[in-house]
Amino acid sequence: MSQAHIEEEVITEANSEFERERVPESKLMGWKNFLGMYAGEHAAGTEFVIGPLFLTTGVSAFDLIVGLLLGNFMAVLSWRFLTAEIGTKFRYTLYYHLEKICGKKLVTGYNLANGILFCFLAGAMITVSATAVGIPFNMEMPKLTDTLPNGFTWIIIVLLIGTVISLIAAKGYDTVAKAANWMSPIIVLAFVACGVVSLINLNISSVSDFWNIWGEGSEPFPGQIKYTFWHVFLWSWFANAAMHIGMSDLSVFRFAKKAKAGWTTAAGIYIGHYIAWISAALLYAVYLKTPEAQAILASGNAPGVAPGPLAYNAIGVFGILAVLLAGWTTANPTIYRAGLAFQAIVPKASRFWVTIIAGAVATIAGLFPAFAMKLLDFVALYGFILAPIGAIIVFEYFFGKKFGIQAFYAEKKNMNFNYAVLFAWLLSFGIFYFISVKYNVFLSFVTLPAWICCGVLYLIFSKWIQQKNKGEASQL
Predict the structure, then answer these.
(1) Domain tally for the chain?
(2) How many CA atoms lie within 13 A of 361 on its CB side?
(3) What pTM does this model have?
């Protein structure tokens, strides 16, 4: 699910940076480069948690299988016709593109928010890896409702994993990216193996048997909400909202020869966000039939979704290795990416120490199981916060000229702070977050309205500010 690995790997393979200029024609790459990257990146540690969490929501077979199919297709369309389209048009990084629109000071605030959210996501992945490392030590696993660390062993393991990951990320990205490329096929193979073994353990011999695992759905587990088709459809569409409609992957597709490279995201999405999620859900379905899980359910509690034990019970030591690698290959580049975001705020700071600080924040977050156990909610919030910023770029590109506003206004007027962007984001975020909290509306339901609202408000505010500035200039 992390965009970091893809972005930095593309930059590394291109053997250049071009942070503040267009990528030259000689450095552009074909669609095959993006196919491999997306296929590997989206079969990650998050998938081991998301699959089981879907099962805890009492979702039906149709709502899950068809909802994921269509929701992920909408995500692919968003990458292809928004992100890749604009990325190949201008060939700027997200941050340079935003700087031209927002101004340097406003982009600093975005970098800070982006870096912190990446740290929290990396923390969830450290939690995932810890559930695998803790198995040989007979560690008590975090429960679905756990928020705080549940023991001394847990704290030690998380701190050790976080320290190792942070040091590797701080050393540089080249080795990390190469190692992750080698690990990705192992992780994908593990997901497939988990799915096959689970089908055997569940005595599935036909399509109807498979369908009946979810059937017509059930009541959600304690502490969870009931998911319908629309919950699954919208959540899977916006699971990577920050990357596609939020435009983070501009930094990736600026290296693509053609916008058609956006279709390659389907490889990662349907391997990682379809096959892997369903395979991980099957692991949890097997566990739910055990006497231990039945006893927990009978007591009115929700059985844990710790990935390590689930994978170990299915495919043994290979499962432990797969969960450890899946969490590691996601957390490592995510911490690295968070370090880059923080360094953009303090350019003179050492990238090594900034990344170590990012790793420390991620490790502290990893101590708290809630980030992983509530991953569906966190990912929805993450996309909701960052996606509207992408609407600024999209609406300026597609509608700015027709609406009569000047593109890249902050750059052309040497502005450090474009209030049109700030007010558009604050109003759209504030209004729809209030609706979500006040009326208990699922956050993914309001992500698209907030995104559209932010884009429209940006056009309106920009028109007013630019005309106002133009009028004042004409009076001088």
Answers:
(1) 1
(2) 19
(3) 0.85
